[in-house]
Amino acid sequence: MQTFLQYTILGLVTGGVYGIAASGLVVTYTTSGIFNFAHGAVAMLAAFAYRQVRFDWGWPAPVALLAVLGVAAPVLGALIYGVIMRGLRGTSEVTRIVVPVSVMLGFLALATWIWDPTPRTPRLFLLFFGADKTVSIAGVNITWHELLALVMAAVIALALRFFFFRTRNGVAMRAVVDDPDLLELNAGRPERLAMLSWALGAFLAALAGILITPIQGTAMSATALTLLVIDAFAAAMFGRLRSLPRTFLGALVLGLAGSYVIGYFPADRWTWTSNFRVSLPMIALFVVLLFLPQDRLRGTTIFRTRERFRMPSVRSAMIAGLALVGVMFLLREILAPTAVNSLAFSMTAAIVALSLVLLTGYAGEINLAVLSFGAIGAIIVHHYGVTGGGSSARTTLWGYLLAAGVCAVVGALVALPSLRLRGLYLALSTLAFGVFVSNMVLREITDRKLPLLHTEFSIFPSGNLTVPRPKVGPLDLAAMPTFLMAVTVLFAVIGVGLVVLRHSSYGRRLTALKDSPAASATLGQSPVALKLSVFMLSAAIAGVGGALMTSQLGSANLDRYDIFLSLSLLVLTVVGGIGYVSGALFGGILFGVAFVALQNTFDKLGADFPDAEGFFEFLARFTTVLPALMGVSIGRNPTGAVEQIVVEFGALRRAKPVVVAGCAAVAVAYQLARNDSISNWWFVVIVGAVIVAMPLAAKRLAPPMAAAAPADGQGGVPLELVGVARPFEPADRDMLDRELGLTVGGR
């Protein structure tokens, strides 16, 4: 009985802190309609900031708490909404998910920048009042800190109840949920209330982070603290992001379940107990999502989203694929072996990103754990697709096909919540799956006896997965240049296949499902079958890409499949243009080589110019935050960078001399690099300068040629989207006057 009481009290304390964090999620979502994936990162930043001012700078605890909880956290929450989230109106659900994810990644990078992730001495967070201050409850000793956390959870629950039902602002916040337009007609201010709710949500996240960190009793880690508060997502979903009482109830159940696992699972026999305990909140999140009541099919909204993806023709896709293969062939002739390795890794990441183009760009569904499917594909190839041994070991085509099939089946299981619910719920279910794979599956590194088979098996042997390079018939891809060309050709083939699929009847059904599930079902289509099939196909592509990524590396540990890397690849693909195959290429190149090369360049410049070393060191560290900043900017350009690049280069269609001059400059630079007259670094600089200069030259040096494009194709924007995808220009007015038979330019 004593043991039961001890673990019950521990579970109530943990559940209470989960309830505080989850209530902040509910408050922000109900007033703005944006799920704050950065909630855990805000808690992490608050915990680090409090420790900094309290223990490193020696501030008194009340002053430190007032500075962090009373000032910094609410201001940060208000700024997040006012500067970033407020601009997401009129964007798709994908953008409203990717931008908060980008904020989370940015906060993680910022924390790593400010606080060294590998300090000489562990960064500990001491309990309030000290570990020796305890009180006995029913014979169980509980620290004052744990008692404070439990009391604070109860106070917060009662205070929120009073706030939402007894205060003017609280009632107005509830009205924002029901009908913001009606509230505004009654002199309400929905935007101000939303900002207030985000300030309140940040305060609750910060409070949860400061309370839970010392209870864990381990050295502080930015990623671990972020994931710790992310565990509260399950409690928030238990209340369906609406009900605070059900949210607190779900949090208490979650805390008690985790505590009882620690207390009653036989850890000496069930060696996976600790991994299961860490994974339990994500398992609970998936189960809650699976059994949530079914949402009504939604129709299209009155206000169309600002994303506009043009459909390329199959012919143009094939030409682009051949051009990509040709460019890669030329590059491999001049690049150093390390650069070829990095480029090959980027192309495997681009193949994984193609699965996101299909799932998210075409079907409007979301996968936050794409590299987790890649990990499963790599595991299957490692166990069942390797022939030979030692240096002659190779992977077989059969292994990759098997990996695709297994990942498709796993994808179908993960997609179960999406068959009944909306995109956000699929995003959360894939997030739960990704964290579960990282914390449970990939940590199974020791051999275990399989039931009935009487044989030992390890999913992730010794924490390191070895996957040799493939051999397909007589074609041996062991050499890295050959492997680079093979994965480039595979990317081009899959990319063209996706464009063909987009033009097919199946692709049109996916588009109808994305635009309006209700209309799609009314026309006799099966949304369930469409969602299931597209997620299976997407998971299969991700599995093959992940296996090839591991093959390129030769071997990989579990950090290569971290959930935050999956989120980074998703963000960069959306930045490129999630509706385009070229967006996957853009995301893969940035993910695999661009930022690393940029950081190495700044490090080299700092070594070459000691007087400016501090400046270049700042720029090198800034590159770690740059991907998140690019993701945050998606709210302003939700269609992505590829669309903007196409618009900018559209002026070159009637400025052929500029195109010829640019191509000649690149050809000369290539020949000089091949003859070792210039370094590859200078070749990249010259090519980059030419790419930037060409559209500028087309507009400034040849304005008649660049501006002579017909108005219905200016910048590649259809007529019906002029004024939506880009502003009206004088040429548009002149075209309308001319077509209507009116005078043009006063003549």
Description:
- It is built from 29 helices and ten strands.
- It has helices at about 1-30, 40-55, 60-85, 95-115, 145-165, 170-180, 180-185, 190-215, 220-230, 235-240, 245-265, 275-290, 315-330, 335-360, 370-385, 395-415, 425-440, 480-505, 505-515, 515-520, 525-555, 565-575, 580-610, 615-630, 640-650, 655-675, 680-700, 705, 730-740; strands spanning about 135, 140-145, 385, 395, 450, 455, 465, 470, 475, 555.
- The chain has a two-stranded antiparallel sheet with strand order 1-2. Strands 3-4 form a two-stranded antiparallel sheet.
- A hairpin with a 2-residue loop joins strand 1 and strand 2 (about 140-145).
- The termini are far apart.
- The relative contact order is 0.10.
Walk me through the topology.
Elements: H1 2-32, H2 39-56, H3 61-84, H4 93-114, E1 134-137, E2 140-143, H5 144-166, H6 168-178, H7 180-185, H8 190-216, H9 222-230, H10 233-238, H11 244-264, H12 273-290, H13 314-332, H14 337-362, H15 370-384, E3 386-387, E4 394-395, H16 397-414, H17 423-441, E5 448-449, E6 456-457, E7 465-466, E8 471-472, E9 475-476, H18 480-503, H19 505-515, H20 517-522, H21 527-553, E10 555-556, H22 563-576, H23 581-608, H24 613-632, H25 641-649, H26 656-674, H27 680-700, H28 703-706, H29 730-739
Antiparallel strand pairs: 1-2, 3-4, 5-6, 7-10, 8-9
Helix pairs in contact: 1-5, 1-8, 1-11, 2-3, 2-4, 2-8, 2-9, 3-8, 4-22, 4-24, 5-6, 6-8, 11-12, 12-17, 13-18, 14-18, 14-21, 14-23, 15-16, 15-17, 15-21, 16-21, 18-19, 22-23, 22-24, 23-24, 26-27
